[in-house]
Design a protein that fits this description.
Blueprint lengths: L3 E3 L4 H6 L4 E7 L4 H13 L5 E5 L4 H6 L7 E6 L2 E7 L4 H9 L1
Parallel strand pairs: 1-3, 2-3
Antiparallel strand pairs: 2-4, 4-5
Length: 100
Amino acid sequence: MSIKTLTETDFKKEVLDQKGRILVDFNAFWCGPCQMVGVTLEELSDNYNIMSVDIDENPELAEEYEVSTIPCLVLFEDGKEIKRNVGVQSKKYLEKWLSK
């Protein structure tokens, strides 16, 4: 599976209206740490439902979810935020974090 890029237009339909767990990666193209996390998330995308939101292209979403530092990973379950993680983490750490 690959990571789907979301916009403000489809965020509700693709995340908030869905059942199950969805990981949303709030990032920016110019952000080096975001690119590092992106590589790890690509590796995890076969086992987890992962979406991406560029905060420069979708500032209202970044503001709504109070994203002030990137990369910011927000885990949703049944349309509700259940936890978040900021910064670069290892694949092993993220697998453990996602499985809790």
